[in-house]
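Issue 218. Parser rejects a valid record. Input:
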Amino acid sequence: MGRAFEFRKGRKMKRWDRMSKDFTRIGKEIVMAVKEGGPNPDTNARLRTAMQNAKGVNMPKDRVEAAVKRATGKDEKDYQEVVYEGYGPHGVAIVVETATDNPTRTVSNVRLYFNRNNGALGTAGSSDYTFTRKGVFKLAAEGLDRDELELELIDAGAEDVYETTEEDEHGAEHKYMVVETAFTDFGQMQKALDTKGVNIVSATLQRVPNTTVSLNDEQAEEVEKLIDKLEEDEDVQAVYHTMG
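Output the parser choked on:
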């Protein structure tokens, strides 16, 4: 127990240092959004969401503006969104979402992480079927009542509404309300929340596992090492897994 606990403690402390990773990830999302739909967030829903998420991780306004400006320039890289699937140790399914200007480099790195951590990179469809894509909205909980919010949002596609508590990089705890929707209801829910005027901290499309694998502490540590390596890669936007 002790060694695994220390590993998880170290993992928590690493999250405090992930701000620059979040800025890079969202910066790429802003660039892709601008290239896809233009630099005006009023007419570009994807850009509006990316800017919302930038605010949620306290990304400085000048960095957001710089990303938008870069995206409109001729020299900015074109990023491809590529999804990789595989299995980690102990049968844990893993899906890796990337945004890359060099897929050859990215797939080589991702394969290396799997191979060096007792996993295996699979083919398309090999593990993604174990997840369901959902829209996940994290809201500032202040002034919100869970039951009331669920009733108000059910027509917009709310499948689940629950409270959660997270620590920020300074160790302070913050309460949030989380709303989950079907993938196809993402835009509809975002409009409903905008109309309601609630404080949306983040709005993301996530892969939620249909079932999870129960592991002991030592096994979980093995899987977490692989997840850490994947998340540290600059091309990786998100990692999803079925570890319980």
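Fixed in the parser; the record now loads. Confidence is low (pLDDT under 50) at residues 1-11.
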